[in-house]
Amino acid sequence: MRFFACGNCNQLVHFDNTQCVNCGHRLGFLPDDLAMHALQPSGEGGWQSSARPQAALRFCANAGLDICNWLIPADRQGELCEACSHNRLVPNTTNPDGVDRWRRIGQAQRHLFYSLLRLKLPHPDRIEDPVGGLVFDFLEDTVQPDGNVEPAMTGHEEGLIAIRAAEADDATREKARVEMNEPYRTLLGHFRHEVGHFVWNKLVRDRNAFEGFRAVFGDERQDYAAALQAHYANGAPAAWQDSFISAYAASHPWEDFAECFAHYLHIVDTLETARSFGIEVDPRGHEEMAAEVDFDPYRAAGAEQLVTAWIPMSVAINAIQRSMGQPDSYPFILSAPVVAKLEYVHQLIRGASTPRQQMA
Questions:
Q1: d(C-alpha 252, C-alpha 174), whole Å
Q2: Do 308 and 172 belong together in one domain?
Q3: Which of 137, 166, 192 is the last residue of a domain?
Q4: Phi-psi region for residue 181, left (φ > 0), alpha (ψ -120 to 50) or beta?
Q5: Do 89 and 220 belong together in one domain?
Q6: pLDDT grade for 355, boundaries at 50, 70 and 90
Q7: pTM of the entire structure?
Q8: Which of 58, 77, 96 is the last residue of a domain?
Q9: Which end of the chain is more exposed for a tag (fewer CB within 10 A), N or C?
Q10: Is a pLDDT exceeding 70 seen at residue 359?
Q11: What gap in Å lies between CA 282 and CA 284, rounded to an integer?
């Protein structure tokens, strides 16, 4: 995620900011131009940006609970922004815990949509595609009569992405990570992985592009439920690191693709952040680990260009984390077969990007 500048005073501002700390201007993100705007009140409940003085704007309806900072052109139908309009079930807002969960969930969701928009990936909602459009349910856990908690399940089904709302709680998410023996577990990771299944539906299945997919990931026609059952019963195969980005990726080609799609977004977006801050890696005596992000990761020539910059950058980030007593941010190995899978994802995205309708 790149950083932005306040349109009024040029102060550095971040993607989730709602007010400039220097000049006090209200801030909002406009998906139409993928930019943060410094705003002035205009009319009843409306806003105007000096960068687009001819355009009347309004905030997403979820701005009222400080959940969303995205803008909508005033003449556009609907009360919700391009990200929030995909939500069907949201966390309970009648208590502070529910609102806090939704804020964390919303933050991760907007980061996901930033990448989808930057990559120009199709993301029809259920109005545009009633059967397979992208829609989110943020599910609450069920408390049984005996007091036991039945966790809601995170998953996907034909464009419907279910996210367990309790994953927004650090303690709950960490407990799940340990129980699942995972090296990494975040809300943003859930979003990126589950949307990877949606992307597979739209760009592989619905376009009958199976041959190229199977050549890289294997035959997805193998029984999915049986494959997952075997994975949870027996674990990943020996030496899975040689061919897969994670142990879970080894369970089935669908999961392999979803994991690789998620990691592609991890890498691209983090490299954009490094580029925005001018971060370079140049350890003395280890020139082979030098790296500079002197290209736009969202417009990379290929996976090899991304990985060449990413490996030294991730090693440095992990070393910094360890210096703070924190676990590695990126505890994964990018083997040659994994890089080939990332290249497939890269080419799939490049071949499927759709032009966005820009605001006047």
A1: 25
A2: no
A3: 192
A4: left
A5: no
A6: low
A7: 0.94
A8: 77
A9: C
A10: no
A11: 6
Does 204 fall in a domain? Answer: no
Question: What whole-number distance in Å separates Cα of residue 124 and Cα of residue 285?
Answer: 50
Structural domain total, the chain: 3
Tokens 């193998």 correspond to: 222
Per residue in 122-159, pLDDT (tens digit) is: 999 999 999 999 999 999 999 888 888 899 999 999 99
Length of the chain: 360
Encoded tokens for 238: 């020996």
- Contact residues for 343 (Cβ-Cβ < 8 A; gap 6+): 302, 303, 304
Range of the domain at 343: 209-360
Amino acid at 147: G
Pair 322, 233 in one domain: yes
Same domain, yes or no: 150 and 182: yes
**What are the distances in angstroms from CA 167 to CA 47, 146, 223, 261?**
34, 23, 28, 21
CA angle 319, 324, 326 (to 5 degrees): 80
Tokens of 268: 């691209």
Placement of tokens 């290929």 in the chain: 302
